[in-house]
What does this fold into?
Amino acid sequence: MPHLMRFSRELEARLERLARQTGLSKSELIERLVSEGADVLEAELLVEGAGAERAGRSIDQLLRESGLGA
It folds into this structure.
């Protein structure tokens, strides 16, 4: 599903520069940024917001659930 996103001039310039340097399209770069950022955000929210539910799970289980563990 396409989404319309607006970036600051500074961020747009950084994306353009990175696209030139890597040969990747800006769309590919943005998709990777969002995906990796979502992974980090999910992990942080699991750790911060799990509350009482977190007490019953080990750190290994939390890492596995977040996709960061083995």
Summary: The mean pLDDT is 81. The first helix runs from residue 9 to 22.
